[in-house]
Amino acid sequence: MGSAEEVNQTKQAPDILMPKGILARTLTALASAVLRSQKVHDSESWEHGSNHGYQQGWKTGANAGFRQGFDKGRNEGHEAGALEGHQRGLEEGFEAGKRIIELRPGRPVDVKGPQVDRNLFDDWRFPITEQIEREVREKVALYLKGQEPTADQWKMIFSKDPSTCIVAGAGSGKSTTMVLRLLVLHRYLAIPRDNIAVVTFTRESRKDFRRKLTEVFELWGITLTEKMTGQIVRTFHSRILDFIRWSQDHPKVSAFEFFSLKKGEDEDEEDELENVFDIRLTVEQLGLMYAAYQQTYEANKEFSELVAELVRRSSKLAPMSANSPEAKRRAGRMDECSRRDAELTETVERLWQQSGFWPIDGIQPGPFPLSLKGREFFANGYSEELDAYVVLGVGKNDRKLSLLSHPKMKLTGATTMKKTFFQVYCDKGIIFLDNYAEATSTLEILRGYVTKCPKFDYQIEGELGETPIMQAFHSAASFLENLGLDVSEAVDRMSFPEGSSDAIFFKALAIYWPAFNLYLSRQTPPIFTFNKMFEMFGERGEANLQELPDEVFMPMLHLLVDEFQDCGANTISWLRAVFREARRRRLHILTDTAVCPGSLMAVGDDWQSIYGWRGSSPKFFKDFEDYFPSPSTTHVLMKENYRSQQMVIDAAESLVKHQSNDDEKHGIASHPKVKDLAHPVQVLDRNDSHLAELVERHFDQGQTVLVLYRKNDTKREVQDKLGSVLAKAKRLKRSGNIKLLTYHGSKGLEADAVFLVGDCAQLSTSPHRNMAYRQAKLGEMGDPKPYDTAQGEETLRLAYVAITRAKQHCYWFVEPAQPLKGGLVSALARVSFKKPFFEDLRTR
User: Fold this and answer.
1) Virtual CA dihedral for 5, 8, 9, 12, nearest 10 degrees?
2) Which of 782, 807, 806, 779 is nearest to 794 (CA)?
């Protein structure tokens, strides 16, 4: 430093100092000249930087010059105008003033004040320049020759708005497009990868995306490790765990759903569910649920009484009218059932004896002959204390067994028919037991000698079958929570007919579910379900969000969500809350060229929304701007289909076209190998032998095959017929070329030839789900059955998904059409054979 006198002299002579900007540019120019002379720079990078700097410098200088010129011109014009205006004002004002009689004040103005800004995003744009677009296009043409994006895909890649909604139809080739979008954000806009996130729904889709991300970035000289891609691409559930683990109260929390993971999972996958739509419970999960069940049963008298009533109702068969649909459907088989009932009674009793649960104390073993409408049937036992006959059913593990004399008659079907006849025609009480291990506990409930909470099966009206009570509780509660509803509050707003068993079930659920969540939270470490986590940090958990540090939000600041149509209300609420809080805090990324606040890109297809039974809804995607309001939103419709030939596309779309308000939404066959093919979807009579012949023909031609079915029973039947070709595929080490899957399980897959087995029909209606849908404000206003309506539409979308798995050929094997009850929807019934893309090969 100089002396004080020198410093003082400097302060007094500012005109000899060079301005800071000029000094910086002078130094930069000198440095650049040195680098050029020494040839130590990378020529391509230098040229790019030089051009970019020149352009930026010109733009900055032009803007500054314009502002200086504008200000000077305005000042000089103001002075000249003021002189002339003053003179004219004196002359005209003097004369006008003579005519003024009275001065009136102005009228009050109705001021409304500022509007409320409800946007979740700031009013800003990504700084994607024409130069960036040009360079990206050139590099893609060089590195991805033959895979250049379409005009619609480029529109997605170069979207400048803070929110973007992409309708990516089946086979639209969205993966590469999404990766290129991330490349633009990171490579060309300098947004750190730590602030870019991709959300997927399944572990498999996550792996595929990570692989694609690594491959494409490597072409641009950007190396991504497994750890890096793992941090960028994750599932919703992994993301929400970050939030709860940052909470001061729950740093080591565990997820209830992770009790389904096998020991020894890779560390990288420890926070990822294999499939979020799999709602089956493991032994470990059931153990937690039953522990909370027992605790609640012992502590809450009302709950124990409700459970006892459910057991009584499920065990003591309620009388059934002979005019009921179920009785009428089976009336013609009563003689047949009577003739085999002695064998059935003996067979089932032997299974109970082998399991060690028969006879039961307090029950007099039979068989006891009874006359039901003149036909002989047998009860397995009699309880004098309860004055009721005991009829034994088949345990879960034995339900696939058949009668020795009737190999095609499964024991479960035979006992179900027998149960119906006892309900209709027996004038005494009937106790029906079909759980070996819990039979004694059930009888204790009936007698009133309760020692522990009973395990029993229950079927909610509208569900497809009985499930263990814990599974029934979990399924019903999860559905309500996925709709964004609180379980107890939702139950309080339900109503059921007088005497309804479901009314008892849901009241018990409203008591149990909060107790279950409390039980989990008191474990060490605490345990929460994912639905509870989303609720805690969703729109109802604003206070929780505000306690979190910025570091939790920053990794999701620029978010891309794949399969957006599969989101449920709970995840939508969480995303809305996160972006609202991020904007409130004014979180942003500061790059060399711009300030970048939050952004969201949603990629999906409402025609592929098929998880409504799980709580998802296409409404959030179709009404994207209502749920994610933004100053500006880019909409993109990707119509090119790089998978299927046109007739497959047209056939599938004909089933769902009425569900779209966009007349432009139509897939266009674009793959060069299939776009000129014209094979209609063939509808044939169900013939598994013929199906097997066709499968083998396509397999022998070297093609891939998918065999899809609606029900698991169908898989077993078809698999038997495909035995030889499946063995051949295994022998030739081509087992992967033939896959058998449910319609739901096929989503995201493709094959040269696809075989659909069975109609895609709506299977049931659901009173309690209709009530939940109304509470969640889903469905059309005034629709008394919004869930049933939504499921009818989803049935058609499921058929659309199944058909669009086909690249070249699609065969649809169906049974004779059956009349549908209660307005249920059938995809086959919606097929128009007048159109060339469907061909009817059924026998008349």
Assistant:
1) -160
2) 779
Is the pLDDT score of 19 beyond 50?
no
Placement of tokens 């049974």 in the chain? 815
Q: Is the peptide bond before 631 cis (omega within 30 degrees of 0)?
A: no
Assign residue 722 the CATH number of its domain.
3.40.50.300
Q: Extract the tokens encoding 608.
A: 């592929």
Q: How many CA atoms lie within 13 A of 799 on its CB side?
A: 30
Q: Quick one: average pLDDT of 450-473? A: 86
Residues 335 and 403 in one domain: yes
Query: What letters, b where the CB count within 10 A reaches 16 and e where it falls short, cover 150-167?
Result: bebbbbbbbbebbbbbbb
The number of folded domains in the chain is 3
Q: Alpha carbon of 259 to those of 202, 249, 255, 534: distances in Å? A: 17, 22, 7, 18
Contact 583, 122 (CB under 8 A): yes
Mean pLDDT of 759-765: 90
| 345 in a structural domain | yes
**Shared domain check, 816 and 680:** yes
Residue 628, token pair as written in the block: 């994610």
**Contact call for residues 55 and 127 (beta carbons, < 8 A):** no
According to DSSP, the residues that pair with 369 across neighbouring strands are 378
CB 357 within 8 A of CB 437: yes
769: which strand partners? none
Same domain, 683 and 586: no
Asked if the structure places residue 830 within a domain, the reply is yes
Task: Compute the distance between CA of residue 511 and CA of residue 300 in angstroms, rounded to an integer.
Answer: 9
What integer is the mean pLDDT of 588-608? 95
The answer to whether residue 478 is domain-embedded is no
pLDDT exceeds 90 at position 618: yes
Q: Which of 436, 451, 476 is the last residue of a domain?
A: 436
Distance (Å, whole) CA 301 – CA 183: 60
pLDDT digits (tens, 9 = 90+) for 119-145: 999 999 999 999 999 999 999 999 999
Q: What span, in angstroms and rounded, lies between the C-alpha atoms of 525 and 507?
A: 30
**181 in the same domain as 250:** yes
Three-state DSSP at 751 gives strand
pLDDT at position 217 is 97
Question: Which of 417, 436, 455 is where one domain is finished?
Answer: 436
The verdict on 583 and 699 lying in the same domain is no
- Give the domain range for residue 330: 316-436
> Nearest Cα to 639, choosing from 661, 668, 596?
668
Q: How far apart are CA 251 and CA 271, in angstroms?
A: 14
Measured in residues, the chain has a length of: 844
- The string of DSSP codes covering 44-74 is HHHHHHHHHHHHHHHHHHHHHHHHHHHHHHH
- pLDDT tens digits along 480-520: 999 999 999 999 999 999 999 999 999 999 999 999 999 99
507, part of any domain: no
Burial of 272 (0-12, 13-18, 19+ CB in 10 A): buried
Do 624 and 678 sit in the same domain of this protein?
Answer: no
Q: Say yes or no: 552 and 611 in one domain.
A: yes
The secondary structure of residue 111, as a DSSP letter, is: -
Same domain (yes/no): 253, 138:
yes
- What are 58's two structure tokens? 């010109």
| Entry pTM | 0.79
Please, what is the Cα angle at 747 between 778 and 467, to 5 degrees?
65
534 in Cβ contact with 573 (< 8 Å):
yes
Rounded CA Rg of the chain? 35
